[in-house]
Each structure stands twice: as C-alpha cells, then as structure tokens.
Amino acid sequence: MIPFLLIMNLITFGVFGFDKWQAQKHQWRISENTLLLLSILGGILGAASGMILFNHKVSKKSFLMKFILVVLIDLVFFYRLIRH
C-alpha cells in the first residue's frame, strides 16, 4: 500500500504543477474533477504540496471546499482500513 500511495502522491503533485504551468500559458487545463479524483485516490499530500508550492487553486474557495471534503473522506476511509 505504501508504494501505491507514494506513486499516487508523486503523480498528483506533478499533475497539479502541470496544470498550473498550463494555466500560466493560457492553454488546455486539467479539470478540477480530475484533480480531485487523483486526490481522493490517495494523492492528498501530493495535492496539498502542489497547491502550496505552485500556489495553485488556493484562492478558489469552491475548489478548497471540495478538497477539504476529499481529505475528510480519505481520512475516514484510511481509518476504517486500518481498523479492520
């Protein structure tokens, strides 16, 4: 499970960085749903790191609320996974 989470976080971090780069060039963007899906699949730390380091999506309140919901869902999922 740890290798999977490590890979997911690296991919998610890279995707957030790529999306920010695309935004700066005014080119095709990755959808918010895709960013959130990567986050919920185990890339929370990569997403949070990408948001902070690239200053990406941090001022968009609607995205932040959805991201917080994703974090809470993941926390509940991992808690239940560890408990059973």
UniProtKB/TrEMBL annotation:
From the record, give the transmembrane residue ranges. Answer: 33-54, 63-82
Domain of life the protein comes from:
Bacteria
Task: Give one Pfam family.
Answer: DUF1294
Say if the entry is tagged with keyword Membrane.
yes
Q: Which InterPro entries match?
A: Cold_shock_CspA (IPR012156), DUF1294 (IPR010718)
Keywords per UniProt? Membrane, Transmembrane, Transmembrane helix
**Which named protein is this?**
DUF1294 domain-containing protein
The protein's organism comes out as: Chryseobacterium candidae
